[in-house]
Amino acid sequence: MRYHNKQSGVDVDLGTLDDEKRRLFDIANERFRNNTNWFEFEQLIFSYTSPLFREAKSRADVLNDPLYLALKDMWLQLGVNQGFVAKPNHERTKAKARPSRPHGTTRRRNVAAARQSPRSRRRSR
Fold this sequence. Notes:
Strand content: under 5%
Largest sheet: 2 strands, antiparallel
Low-confidence stretches: none
Oligomer: single chain
Mean pLDDT: 81
Strand order of the largest sheet: 1-2
């Protein structure tokens, strides 16, 4: 059994799930297709009584679980569909660099101020 989301590109193999986790995935998939409220979906899937968290001994166990990856993607896609989550921007944008300015005057001012004692600098302000 596989989970594939064409919109996000997530593809997860769920073949190793036990019966309890498979039932959770089936319930989540049904609720996802019925467009259940995003907050209700979150409460059902990510509550600490969920089978997703029962056998986990650490947070890393949960985050690396293929079921978690599939359910998280369903949850985020449901949030996008209902307008609670912004659509991901897959275009890579470069950060705009600040314009460079000559620092000659500020450097001179700092050098001149460095010759004064801290107390006299405070008085001259």
